[in-house]
């Protein structure tokens, strides 16, 4: 099993992840999970797979240092490049917060890479299911959203996947002096202000760039 320090050095070398806080954001886990992995000096296999898919890195290189950092490109079909986006176990709550935060991939979905590139960085994208009704009618219970984890700068009137303490949510986010405000589209839900020491437990996972709904 790969040790924490070797793994982290390779991740820093091949991505824009510079700190352990960045690593936690990329994996969609709480900072305490990174601390525990560092203490054990080992990395869960699912983290290797998650970062491989998010940043298009070779699993063999991440885990064993073999070959090149970049994964082999996907085959082209009739001149159109496809790109596989993982759907992860974690669920975003359109409400008070979901405690299902695992970044483990459970499915794969194929998109046209040029379409993804118009919305952000394909290698940093994941699909997540939504539970709750606080973002209705724009995002509804049972929708699947596409989250670009490379877009974490808070901008007005944009929907983000965010984490607070040990839960994750989908909300509109407003940044103010020494605080952030989480806002719902459903008027039945009041804004939530996070400020002071609470900000240490807040993170932006990524921007919601697309959603899908079954009928």
Automatic annotation (TrEMBL):
Keyword match Nucleotidyltransferase: no
GO-annotated molecular function: DNA binding
Gene3D superfamilies listed in its UniProt record: lambda repressor-like DNA-binding domains (1.10.260.40), Umud Fragment, subunit A (2.10.109.10)
SUPFAM superfamilies per record: LexA/Signal peptidase
Annotated ranges, domain Bacteriophage CI repressor N-terminal: 9-68
Residue ranges occupied by any Peptidase S24/S26A/S26B/S26C domain in the UniProt entry: 91-209
Pfam families: Peptidase_S24, Phage_CI_repr
Listed GO biological process terms: negative regulation of DNA-templated transcription
Keyword Flavoprotein attributed: no
Domain of life: Bacteria
The entry's keywords: DNA-binding, Transcription, Transcription regulation
Protein name: Transcriptional regulator
Species assigned in the record: Halodesulfovibrio spirochaetisodalis
Origin organism lineage: Bacteria, Pseudomonadati, Thermodesulfobacteriota, Desulfovibrionia, Desulfovibrionales
């Amino acid at each position: 099993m790969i040790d924490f320090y070797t793994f982290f050095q390779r991740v820093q070398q091949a991505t824009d992840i510079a700190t352990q806080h960045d690593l936690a954001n990329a994996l969609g886990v709480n900072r305490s999970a990174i601390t525990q992995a560092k203490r054990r000096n080992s990395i869960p296999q699912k983290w290797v797979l998650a970062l491989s898919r998010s940043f298009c890195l070779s699993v063999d290189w991440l885990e064993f240092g073999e070959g090149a950092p970049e994964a082999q490109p996907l085959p082209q079909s009739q001149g159109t490049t496809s790109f596989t986006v993982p759907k992860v176990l974690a669920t975003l709550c359109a409400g008070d917060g979901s405690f299902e935060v695992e970044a483990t991939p459970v499915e794969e979905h194929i998109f046209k890479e040029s379409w993804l590139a118009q919305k952000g960085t394909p290698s940093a994208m994941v699909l997540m299911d939504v539970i709750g009704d606080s973002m209705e009618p724009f995002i509804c219970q049972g929708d699947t959203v596409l989250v670009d984890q490379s877009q974490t700068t808070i901008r007005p009137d944009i929907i983000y996947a965010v984490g607070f303490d040990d839960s994750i949510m989908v909300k509109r986010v407003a940044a103010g002096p020494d605080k952030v405000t989480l806002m719902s589209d459903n008027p039945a839900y009041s804004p939530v202000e996070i400020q002071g020491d609470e900000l240490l437990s807040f993170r932006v996972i990524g921007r919601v760039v697309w959603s899908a709904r079954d009928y």
